Amino acid sequence: MPTIDEHFAVKPLLDSLRAECGDAQFGYRMQGLFAHTLMRLGASILEVNAQGHPDVKARIADELLLAQVKSAQHRGPCSVFQLSGSDLAGIAPGEHAIGYLAFLDCADPVSWFLVDFNVARQFLNHAVPIAVLRAAQQRQISDDCTAEFVEMILSLKARLNRLTFPLLARRAIEGSRI
To answer: Structurally, how many domains does the chain consist of?
Structure first.
């Protein structure tokens, strides 16, 4: 489990990556890194999509996990998020499938908030403060993802900028760690 100091060490690394590759590429890379986070939690990655929905499809235990991955710099208390209909539709649960909005809050300390489909749907087409996503998260899986993500980012800091979306997606689907 990463220490509090390690949690705070991730933000400058992500800020640097975002400045280097731009917002769009940063978002794609976070999708790929989220897939690798799930792998570290024992999931098998089935899909990592640059286009279409969901962004990540994984098998964990006997369930299919569908995730729509979003991130925000979260510059202050007025930072908001808005969930679109297509994003929500992509994570609609089915038989043996669970859907999550996987939101990476890039404020200090960097944290993942995984919000179940049934809770996330109430945010459809509304500007929702990020604090509301924090309150709505499923705590255990969010904490597990945050801990693995922090550990992974710190271990990759020397080569983080070389991990492109296509590389991250391909390696996740192959089941190869980065």
So the answer is: 1
